[in-house]
Amino acid sequence: MxxxxxxxxLSMAEQGNLxxxxxxxxxxxxxxVDVYERLKGTGFSCYFEKVERGEKNxxxxxxxxxxxxxxxxxxxxxxxxxxxFEDLKDVTERLKPVGYNELPDDYPGIIGxxxxxxxxxxxxxxxxxxxxLNIPDAVMIFPGNVIVFDNHLRAIRVxxxxxxxxxxxxxxxxxxxxxxxxxxxxxxTTLKSEAGNGKLQDKRKDKGKFFQPIQFKTNIAxxxxxxAVVRAKEYIEAGDAIQIVISRRLEAEIRIDPLRIFKALKxxxxxxxxxxxxxxxxxxxxxxxxxxxxxxxxRVTTNPIAGTRPRFNEPGMDREMEKELLADEKERAxxxxxxxxxxxxxxxxxxxxxxxxxxxxxxxxxxxxxHLVSEVEGELLENLNCLxxxxxxxxxxxxxxxPKIRAMEIIEELETNKRGPYAGAVVNLNFxxxxxxxxIIRTIVMKGNKAYIQAGAGIVADSxxxxxxxxxxxxxxxxxxxxxxxxxxxx
Length: 491
Description:
Heterotetramer consisting of two non-identical subunits: a beta subunit (TrpG) and a large alpha subunit (TrpE). Pfam families: Anth_synt_I_N (PF04715), Chorismate_bind (PF00425). The chain is an alpha+beta fold. Helix content is about 30%, strand content about 30%. The chain is built from eleven helices and 20 strands.
């Protein structure tokens, strides 16, 4: 049965111009990634999933296909060069959604990414580095269809976002409703076809076959990276900054299906934010552990993460790592600095006196590491919206440094290439005026047949250059492992 009924649809159309029409379907024996693989087609699409700490899968998985609108901004893209934050705000303000309260809070209304260099629409920064990736500042899609996969109930809801811009005639209104119904039924017909299992299957016919191992090369030699760390420390000692996040990038030529890499990444590095964005030539394959900023009603939240130890998945060893992490003065000082930075960011868009630290320096276990995590929240000013909150917090201090502007100026001097999507944000705008966003880290960026992995280290006064280089390698390891696993399986 389709919901709402046509009579209900007409009543809702009197209140707004965007209505979800949907039908539920039994999702037994199908997995979200398998469903996405069969429905995504050749246009822009994405897969998005929130995963609870310590779990391998989230409650809901979202498949976004058949975009009604594609929003591209930035000198590197085909879109305009105007401010993507303000332009997207204009787009959202023209939408008057009705009937979305029955859908999950994380339901993607408009979803995509902002590259790190979108910050140039917020702050004036030097422009020194080569933009070799040539990826837009922002790419967002407004999906015509969203398939919500409830992983607990094994149920699927197929939704058509029915946009009624300029439609008032009764015949046109009925045709819009019937078109949505036909669209939904067509998707369900596809879903009823033979399903796969969505897991990483070994397609090799000859298990003894020799595979040429993938070789990642770095955009900066180890010696040069360590020199950059030394230079960053000199800036810190001179009082320019407290912390500067210096990163390096790995790249390799890949000739396998990017979605297979995502399947491998879900297996080897399940994280709070799992996403696969297929935006034509550009694809993001991500497993981000860190929220950038979230807006729910008038509540705005950040979760700074700083301080890391490895996990051994053995209770006694993990507890020892937790004690060691909590006792590490360097890690604690760095974490406190980032909490203060988050308070300052939220203070720019929150009511006076409303910013507070809800959780402070708590240990959280992820799939492969243990982190120190805090939660900072505020009450959003009444004249501002979620995109104002995004601007205030962008980019995160955990991938730039403090003070943020001076740290970014030094990053531009010490790094060799524009960052592209790395250290930017995946942004999910819902149709309730809210937003969820995560930092683009632990993410593979693909353009054409090239895969790029970038990782950084937070440089402070007592940083040891050799260890900072090794930290970037450790952060990249799970991504490299996912690529190699996918390559071996595909053969």
